[in-house]
Amino acid sequence: MPVTKDPDTIAPAGPAIILVEPQLGENIGMVARAMANFGLVELRLVNPRDGWPSEKARAAASRADHVIDAVKVFDDLASALADLNFVFATTARQRDGFKAVRGPVEAGRVLRARHGMGQRTGILFGRERFGLYNDEVGLADEIVTFPVDPDFSSLNIAQAALLMSYEWMKSGLEDETKTNFSGPRMKPASKEELHGLFAYLEGALEARGYFRPAPKKPKMVDNLRAVLTRAGFAEPELKVLRGIISSLDRFSPAMPRGDGSPGDDPRRLPAAARAGKAEPGRPAHRPSGDDEDAPPLGGKGTDND
By three-state DSSP, how is residue 41 classified? Predict the structure, then answer.
């Protein structure tokens, strides 16, 4: 359902986003969506080309209606910045002047610190085609630029707003690497459980003739253990592995290496079918039908060949 908030009761939760002469309603809407993703609500427009309000902007905002409803429109940039204490101007071009230039991570922390001191802050974005004029950058306090490829430095305005909104949100986390959810917490497997898997796997492989030639078995066992110990398994993961090995090994050692597939295990056949295997050297009779295409018993095995 759409997020519904009264724009008159929304307290600024962070820096205002100021768009200078945005051209497309869709871009304005995508900026609003990026802001809402990271907790920003105050969007200011300076002379939007196609006027305001814009249904295209609302559609592109993808339910960030509380941001769209609170949009303020200004005739000039100076008016849009008048009540702010500190403003960053975003640009990808080298500018002449004395303004400090920061990356987005540092800029996010600066904004957070000033916000904590009760200051009103803003981030200024230019036109889609060519960004900000020098005199517009001159109205800001500092510059923020992104570490992009110099040969392809142009960002879509919504992408730039998303990056800065993200850095704003991240700067307020107790741990900047923290996420809203994490993977499952599982109890690490004990050495006893791990050694039990080693023994089980070694026995299954031995029954299937894996360790060939025999003199190489100690080294092969060492290699297996090195692979299995490197992963740092949890208890549930070892149970999965044991279940897999048990399933693959259900026909050993009754069905020695090369005597067919697991589906041919005599313990899985009806009694009448098993009786057909009693005569040595003679393949059991298989029923007609789809099984006609099954490979004959006694064929060359594929395990470790």
Answer: coil
As a whole number, mean pLDDT of residues 194-202 equals 85
CA 248, CA 263: separation in Å to the nearest integer? Answer: 11
Q: What is the mean pLDDT of residues 201-206?
A: 84
Q: Is the pLDDT of residue 148 over 90?
A: no
Neighbours of 203 (CB within 10 A): 14
pLDDT at residue 149 is higher than 80: yes
What's the pLDDT at 2? 44
CB-based burial, 113-148: b 16+ in 10 Å, e otherwise = ebbeeeebbbbbbbbbeebbeeebbeebbbbbbbee
Question: How open is the CA angle 138-79-46, to the nearest 5 degrees?
Answer: 85
- Side chain identity at residue 154, one-letter code: S
The residue among 68, 76, 77, 63 whose CA lies nearest residue 42 is 68
Give yes or no for a contact between 144 and 89, defined as CB atoms under 8 angstroms apart.
yes
